Structure formats: C-alpha cells, structure tokens
Amino acid sequence: TIYSRVKNMGDDSRRIPSLKPTKGWIYRKFGYYESPFTNTIQMHRGIDIVGKRGQPIVASADGVVIFSGLKGGYGLTVEIDHGNGYITAYCHNKGNVVEVGDVVKRGQLIAYMGNTGRSTGTHLHYEVRYNGKYIDPEPFLLIEEF
User: Fold this and answer.
1) Overall number of domains in the chain
2) What tens digit of pLDDT does each residue of 11-46 get?
3) SS in 3 state form for 47-103?
4) Does a structural domain hold residue 113?
5) What pTM did the predictor assign?
6) Which range of residues forms the domain containing residue 74?
7) Residue 146 maps to a domain
8) In a domain, 48, yes or no
9) pLDDT tens, 52-65?
10) How far is it, in rounded angstroms, from Cα 8 to Cα 126?
C-alpha cells in the first residue's frame, strides 16, 4: 500500500505527496464524469476539494516549483516537482505565493483557494502525476492536517 511504502522511506517520505493540501471535502473524484461545460463524458485527472475563497493551500510534499501562473482552463496554477517522478498541480487559485525555482517544504503555504479559469465555484483542483501519468490523488491523502 501507499501507506506502508511511505512509512518505510524515512526522510525520503517527505517527497511523496501524502499531505492533504487544503481543508475541505472532495466534491469530484478522479475518473470519468459528465462535464458541466460540454455535457460530454470526460476524464477528470484530479480531485476537487471544496473550501472557502482565500483559504490556504499548502504543498503536499517537499519539492521545487516548476510552474506558477495562469494555465488555460486551470486558471492560476502551481506545479511542484518532487524529484522522484511525482509532480503535483494545484489549480483555480485566487493567488499564488510561490515562484518558479522556489524550494518548498511539505505543509508550506503555496497559494490561496479561488475560482479562476474554467471553474464552477471556489475549490482546489489537485492533481498527482507519476512519471508523466495522471494518477488518483485520493489514496495519497494520508495526512489530514498541515
């Protein structure tokens, strides 16, 4: 399991995206869904966590910021490379507080929740990629509080 893998990694476990990046409940899960914009079935490549406008979003693991800015339908986005094949994305932000090249620690503030880009309301769209492949972030949310 992911938990046993992370538990046995020691300090390297800080680079596995195992911290829930914000408070709130998961509104939309990873997988296929009917898009409210096109009414067609599409792949949802992350999870949507509903919260309040302006609430903190933190890095789910240690890493380096590789993108911070506007990214099409994702709106204001932060992407972090964790140096081990994992990249995480934090989208629809109200504001980003990190820049490309910043070294971040798990639990560090990186953005504030918003409703930018192609969005139906205030939330965090959170993605995890491993070696370029989108994977379900939910099994990684092992640590609730930051």
Assistant:
1) 1
2) 678 999 999 999 999 999 988 888 888 888 888 899
3) EEEECCCCCEEECCCCEEEEEEEECHHHCEEEEEECCCCEEEEEEEECEECCCCCCE
4) yes
5) 0.89
6) 2-140
7) no
8) yes
9) 999 999 999 999 99
10) 25
